[in-house]
Amino acid sequence: MNNKTNIFDVVSYILISLLVIVLFYSFIKIIYLHINRIPRNSVNVSPITGEILSPVSSSREAIEVTYSQFKDLESFSGINKANLIYEYIDPKLGHIYKTVFYDTPPGNNYPVLNIEKIPLLELPKLNFSSALDEKIGSFDSANSVYLKINGLISSSFLFENGEYIYYKDKTPERDLNDGKKITVSNIILQLSKEEYPNKTTTGSGEGFLFMAGKVIKINWKKESSPIRFYDENGNEISLVKGKTWFAIGNKETSVVYD
User: Fold this and answer.
1) What residues have CB less than 8 Å from 135, skipping those under 6 apart?
2) Can you tell me whether residue 192 is helix, strand or coil?
3) Model confidence over 138-187: pLDDT tens digits?
4) Which of 27, 33, 59, 208 is most enclosed, with most CB atoms within 10 A?
């Protein structure tokens, strides 16, 4: 009788332990899905381009691809499908481009330095508005934009047919994957006091937003993720729908536009 009782106790203990493990796993999974879910008010909209997504998945992940200008031109293969593009100078790797793919996965992006998945919470907090026409009309013109990041690397943009075309050395860069010019809808110049700021830089500072052939001065703040952007009156800025180029530089960075 005692042996049967002991066996029953052991089996009960094992079953209870398994139940606790299953419940704990389910609890962790629910928390993960809640953190990474797409907000209810933007189920059909990308949080980083403002554009409609199809198909939509609440478990959609962002993929970050790192390119280096030290690589050959094939480093720009597939960059036109990116939703966000970061440009900055790394003290060891030199001229760096980091791209984020959210709407569509990256294609044949080789050779590149690195490819990895990133949490949605690390993406910038961006707002988009379809009613910017009247407000944009009062901004200063910026049909051409010339940047010299950290006083070392030059990049230029020319506004044409509703988008900014990216230039290097007076020549428009092309995505070798589709042969098309590299274009973006918004350009954000983020200025920092750090010697070599990058996409993980924290703190606050000034900058510029270029969109629809216009420009406004902005401020940025990042105590922890995500980074947020404000106008000079302290209101969060709105962008036009489409992909955004982030140029991140130090106090030596200069900008000329007209």
Assistant:
1) none
2) coil
3) 788 999 999 999 999 999 999 999 999 999 878 898 888 888 999 999 99
4) 208
CA 224 from centre of chain:
15
Q: CB of 51 within 8 A of CB of 241? A: yes
Token pair recorded at residue 232? 């000079």
What DSSP letter does each residue of 195-256 carry, written as one string?
SS--TT--EEEEEEEEETTEEEEEEEEESSSSPEEE-TTSPBP-B-SS-EEEEEE-TT-EEE
Residue bearing tokens 């536009």 = 257
Is residue 174 within 8 Å of residue 80, measured between CB atoms? no
- The one-letter amino acid at 170: K
Q: Which of 2-6, 110-114, 178-182, 249-253 has the highest mean pLDDT?
A: 249-253
CA distance 203 to 193: 9
Could you give the C-alpha distances from 247 to 12, 52, 124, 171, 181, in angstroms and in order? 61, 25, 14, 19, 18
Residue 132, token pair as written in the block: 């910017």
Nearest to 245 by CA among 162, 170, 161, 155: 155
